[in-house]
Amino acid sequence: MKSSILAGIFATGAVAQSGAWGQCGGNNFQGPTTCVSGYSCVYQNDWYSQCLPGAAPTPTTMKTSTTAKPSTSTAKPSTTTSSAPATSTSPAPGKGKFKWFGVNEAGAEFGEGTLPGIWGKHFTFPSTSAIQTLINDGYNTFRVGFLMERLVPNQLTSSFDDAYLKNLTETVNFITNAGSWAVIDPHNYGRYYGKIMTDTTAFGAFWTKLAKQFASNPRVVFDTNNEYNTMDQTLVLNLNQAAINAIRGAGATNYIFVEGNAWSGAWSWNVTNTNMVALTDPQNKLIYEMHQYLDSDSSGTSELCVSADIGVQRVIGATNWLRANGKMGIIGEYAGGANSQCLAAVTKLLDHLKENSDVWTGAIWWAGGPWWDKYMYSFEPPSGTGYVNYNTLLKKYVA
Ligand SMILES: *[C@@H]1O[C@H](CO)[C@@H](O)[C@H](O)[C@H]1NC(C)=O
Ligand SMILES: *[C@@H]1O[C@H](CO)[C@@H](O)[C@H](O)[C@H]1NC(C)=O
């Protein structure tokens, strides 16, 4: 969720205070950093702070990362105008079908700067009625973020927090009871309480417990961790393999999404994450989850897309890597701003994935969730900016 910043929205700088649920901070954020009465600015991650109800929490020292996401493209933003997007209702081109096509559901991982935090104040769970609307639209996959520190508050090997597990399970069961897929996403960037996880045995113990919880539900997909980054490359491999071994050791035959280093970026996968080819799974149900944004540095922090072709250019190397190595992939996060160039770029990206559905199994938009307010990519029905501008287009690609 390195993507949740509203850079440039308040470029004119006239607003003095951010409103309820509004953004109030984050790297490059230009807007107001104080909140209206009754709300306080709560750090969520380095790229997003949000006005949440109530008084300010105690200050935190738990920033997960201070390094900026590396620049990923030297391309200058294109000035050419894009072709008309998304107005026709004809089916999406391309052979093949997506197995998984849906929306990330954010909320339970919010407020990572306040642990464990208070439900309804620092974090929340996705709205089942909003998910139902998306299911009615045809989406079949929901990636549900949560924080490992809330599920296992003491140490990786300790027992679950029952109340948090109950709420997570209710969300998951709502999704899978409707016949959709729930991707369980520890949104932890390879870290626990801000420290890179180096104990693969303890990480495995965490996954043994979690896999046992959901092993009987084949519509649950296990995502080992969100966006490993700025970590040792072999450690990323070993953490993924420890999770796979633990999940299979627990008797679970569910699909497993593995993620790579460098925020699991598709654009650099063929350079950075080539060692991930060595992952093994006795069930042969591994899917390589990569993320790809379309703004200048692939960070998902701008409404702008570099060009209509940028998505294809950034994933083509990953497409070739998957095929050359006999692997299957999914774009687990992507998005674009509400403008014609981004609509064209998202269209071309999805067309490319679909045309290469021998290796690409689907895509998951970043992001739905009840607390996004006016966030540029919000896919929360009925009024999220992304939902309003992209639902017509994305619906053409549903499985
Ligand atoms: C779980 O959700 C209920 C509301 O359904 C809420 O009252 C409770 O505080 C939540 N607990 C946690 C730990 O998320
Ligand atoms: C790696 O992937 C990038 C991005 O898709 C691509 O531009 C580049 O040509 C690829 N390099 C190799 C060696 O495949």
TrEMBL record:
Pfam family, one: Cellulase
Keywords: Carbohydrate metabolism, Glycosidase, Hydrolase, Polysaccharide degradation, Signal
Annotated region described as Disordered, given as residue ranges: 59-93
Signal peptide (residue range): 1-16
Catalytic activity entry: Endohydrolysis of (1->4)-beta-D-glucosidic linkages in cellulose, lichenin and cereal beta-D-glucans
InterPro entries on file: CBD, CBD_sf, GH, Glyco_hydro_5
Any one GO molecular function term: cellulose binding
Stretches assigned to the CBM1 domain: 16-52
Root EC class: hydrolase
Enzyme Commission designation: 3.2.1.4
Residue spans crossing the bilayer: none
Family annotation (SMART domains): fCBD (SM00236)
PROSITE patterns given in the database record: CBM1_1, CBM1_2
GO BP terms in the entry: glucan catabolic process
One cellular-component annotation, GO: extracellular region
PANTHER family cross-referenced by the UniProt entry: ENDO-BETA-1,4-GLUCANASE A, GLYCOSIDE HYDROLASE FAMILY 5 DOMAIN-CONTAINING PROTEIN
Similarity comment text for this entry: Belongs to the glycosyl hydrolase 5 (cellulase A) family.
Protein name: cellulase
Native source species: Chaetomidium leptoderma
